[in-house]
Structures are given as structure tokens and as C-alpha cells.
Amino acid sequence: MVERRPALTVLSHVVLMLGVLVVAFPLYVAFVASTQTSHEIQQAPMSLLPGSHALVNYRDALLGSAGSAGSNAPVARMMWVSLVSALIIALGKIAISLLSAFAIVYFRFPGRGLVFWSIFVTLMLPVEVRIGPTYQVVADLKMLNSYAGLTVPLIASATATFLFRQFFLTVPDELMEAARIDGAGPLRFLRDHLLPLSKTSMAALFVIQFIYGWNQYLWPLLVTTEEPMYPVVIGIKRMIAGGEAAVDWNIVMATALLAMIPPALVVVLMQRWFVKGLVDSEK
Amino acid sequence: MAQEKRVSYRSRWLPWLLLAPQGLVIAVFFFWPAGQALMQALQRQDAFGLGTEWVGLENFQALWNDPSYLASFRTTALFSVLVATFGLGLALLLAVMANRVLRGATVYKTLLIWPYAVAPAIAGVLWLFLFAPAVGVVAHQLQAWGLPWNHLLRGDHAMALVVMAAVWKQISYNFLFFLAGLQSIPKSLIEAAAIDGAGPWKRFWTITFPLLSPTSFFLLVINIVYAFFDTFGIIDAATQGGPGQETAVLVYKVYYDGFKALDLGGSAAQSVVLMTVVIVLTVLQFRFVERRVNY
Description:
The complex is a heterodimer. Chain A is mostly helical. Chain A has helices at 6-33, 38-42, 54-63, 75-106, 112-121, 131-140, 147-151, 158-170, 173-181, 186-197, 199-214, 218-223, 232-239, 249-269, 271-280.
């Protein structure tokens, strides 16, 4: 610090604590609601102290409860769908982007510029601007309500390709020459030298893309119409479709917390790679 | 940094094989649908999907003359401005404070970044629960203070609700980038100004803020992209574009017209308009990134 100003330091802490509290408030209310009965919540205003129904609520949410309004599919199944899709999307993006970046950086072939350009253009075509026709393609390929439909259309990644390209360009040329002298072909070089070097980039990308995959909403909303294939983010939306009064808020909030836990854990536990991934993928 | 390798492998088929997975996905799920969108934007389909006819720019003219589409443009503009202003302002305030404190900075950071991990739709549900007119704790408190909160009836309340949820989710991202930007400002500059007698307030506005402008411009573009395209989940979960169409931003309208109202031509024309918006924003983004590197 440049100079001692105790009053300002106190003010900084106060502002930061206020910020943390405001940011955490919706989470706290969700947690409290997930420990009360539906009836307790309906008696507005609900108590802001935790109730005693946590276990029942989370069990009902995870395993599904008969007799509630709206959707009551088991959340455990939805979490599984979300997990599988997020993993396929994250790992798939990393794999195909790594291969394309390798081809673009380490090979000289006619049409390379065009390939690079066409990967770049996909940045300008997010799902949101071509939902109708993309849905049509997926429907024609009979991929609705399948993991393939949920993941494959989202798996191409210009940002990940650029990130690996940037990284490969910083790898010294001597490494490749040495490998070549030792008789290693391109694939061997990729496996034995580039892959181990790319570990940090891969970890950083994994965190970002896992969250991206887990939090997908618009696309699963279109391609899943059957309950067993709902990711949890869609499932929760279906639960509140019944209108305010008919909603079992305690179950909905329990589901919301369950849906938040995996990506939040990934961010908090892998914070270093998360920050690196965010910053790198914007370069 | 070099843009090329001095040495490279030569192979007629291997690079194509390596590019095949990415290329296939891009061709089938990006270029083909985008081409279809362009084509459908120039066509009209009859209600039963039996025949199509070319109608030229009629779909675009219809959009231009559709008051609800123009209203959606205004809604999107208002929404983006509010999200960007509050998102950037609050994040900057928190980042400046976090940059000042020595103790606990990492703890604050951890406690502030987790909303990034929350899905937009979940963020929408959380804030909906706080502000639900009958059961929401905040809504109830507002009513007790004499503000009859009801976002199901009042458009301005609905807009406030989705803006709050969107800002809440985006603050963590802005905060991280502002903090990184602040930490890269040379301490010697700040110290020199302090020796010259400039107080913290003056130092912030004459040194820190101008030096932070590349980060701020970059974040401004990112936040507008976010407000345009990544907030669909928030809006669909919290207000469904309502009441009426008061919170139906452009992306919501594309979805609604294409999948609920089944107006394929109109929806495709809207897609084309949105594509133009993305292209403009991407170009802007890359120009700013370019500038940031030079700086």
C-alpha cells in the first residue's frame, strides 16, 4: 500500500463484505428454503432460519416424489445426464481442438489458410443465432433425446483451437527438430512431447468448458423432450412451469443447490486453472 | 510471437485426418444450418410445411414493420445498457477495494467468483424465488415498505428482476478481469502521484482509471455479448419474456417465434439480423484485443 489510511482500509473491508453478503444472499435463501416444508414457505414471509426438513427434501429431490405439482422426475438421473454431457463436451472440445491446432501449426498444406478462417468464422455463429436450422439438422439425423444430440453440435470450438495454436507457437522449434532426428513421426511427437507440455492449457480449458457444458440451457431445451434425457438445468425449469402457487419451492431450491454444486466445486477447487482459462481464452 | 513454424511436417493426408472431426462438426452443425437460415430468411413456408416459395426480402420488411420486433430491439438495448452499467460499475468498485486490502484478498476473491459457475437458468430461478410476489422474501419486504412489487404485472419490475439476476451472475467475471488489470498497473506511478500530494480519489481518476481503459473497453464488449446472447436462460426461467413482451430480448424472440409461434421465415430473418449483430460485436472485440496487446 502506498500510504496508511486506516479509515479507507476499513471502508474497503466494509464494501467487500457487503458485496460478498449480497452475492451470497440468494444462495442462503435457497439453502434455507431447501430445509423447510412447502407449507412453511407459502406462509410469506418464510423464516430466514434453516428448518428441519433438509433430509426429506433432498431425498425427494434426488429420487423424485410422487404427488407433487409440475415435474417430479428424479434429480439424480438429471445430474447424471448433465455430468455425462458436460464431460463429453469438455473432453471432446479439448480433443478435437488439440488435433486441429496441431494440424494447423505443424503442417504446411494447401488450403490451410481457408481451414483456419472457417474455424474462426464459427465464433460468429453461436447456437442462439441459428437455432431453427440446427434443430432441423439434429432432428433429421435422429439425434433428438440422445447424448449425441446434446453434445456433438456444441463440440466445435474456435476459442480452444486458438488457445492451443497460441500455445504450440510458443513451443521451441528445436524440440520438433530433435524429435525428428530421433526418428519420431508427427503423431509420436504429438503424443510424447506436445501432450505432456499442454497439460496446464488442457486443465484450464477443461474447467471453463465443463462449466459451459453443465450450464447449457437453450440447446437442451430444444433437443430433449423426454424426461429421462433432461439435464438438471432443464429439469428445474420444468418444475417451476406450474405457476407460482403450485410450485414446491423447497424441492426446487434443493434441486437448484444440487445443480450448482458440481460447477461451483470445479471453480473453487481449480481456481488457479479457472482464472488462467478465463484469461487465456480471451487472448 | 512467430505466426509460423520455421520447420514443418509434410504429409498429403495426415493434416486432413487431424482436422476431420472438427471440420465435420463445423460443416454439419454450423455452416449448413447457417446457410439454411440465410435461405429460409428469403422464403415463406405455408402453415402445413408442404411448400415454400421465394419471397425475397419480404421477411425482413415484415420484421421492419412489426412493432413487437422493434420493441424487442429497444428492450434488448435497455437490458444490455443496464446489465453492462451495473455489472461493470459494481465489479470495478469491488475490484478496487480488493486491490487495496492486504489481508483476506484471496478469501474475498473466492467468495465473489463462484456465481460464474451458476447456470443462467438457475440464477433466474434463484432471483425469481426472492422476488416472487406471493412467497418471495424480498418481494414481501418491499411490499411491507409500501412498494407493491409484482413483476408478473409490471414490465419495469420484470426488467429490474432479470437485470439483477444477469448482473449478479456477471460480476464475478468482470471482477476477475478488473482485478488483473489493477494489479498490472505499475506501483511506481501510484507512488509518484502520492508523493506529489494526490489523494486516493484523485489518483484513481487521473491514473488508475485511464490505465484501466483497455480492460474496461474489452469488458464492455464482452458484457454486451453476454447480455445479448447468454441471458436467455435467465429470462426464460424468471419471466418468460413477460409480462406481455416487456422482457423479450432478441434471442428470446427468435426462439419464441421459431418454436412456439412456428413462424420459420420470420425466425430465420431474425437469425440473420442477429448474425449481423454478432459479426459487428466480434470485429469490435478483436479490434480492442488488438489494441490491448499494443498497449
